[in-house]
Amino acid sequence: MVSYVTKVILQSLQLLLVLLKTDVQSHILMQNPPGLPSIVVTWLVCGLRGTRFIIDWHNYGYTIMALSHGPDHLIVRLAQWYEQLFGRFSSHNLCVTNSMKEDLQNNWNIK
Question: How does this chain sit within the bilayer (predicted)?
Fold first, then answer.
């Protein structure tokens, strides 16, 4: 668990530095998954720069994690909470299927 937390912190810092070094754009499009740690880092940079944040939802990262850890594992539950909370902070959302769109709207209040 400690190595996973360390990995997420290092990836967050790397992504933050890369995004801050790039030219300011009107929009940033991020694919999910992988959303950990990119959703919150991208949202933060977009907020600092006045950039619109778009998430392209292909799946839920926590469901992929559940395949190897089980659905009740602490890290899976934290990943679900993280995606659900920070996914709402996007300016716009794209979905690969209508069922994904409906699930985001009905279960996570993401439009």
Answer: Single-pass membrane protein
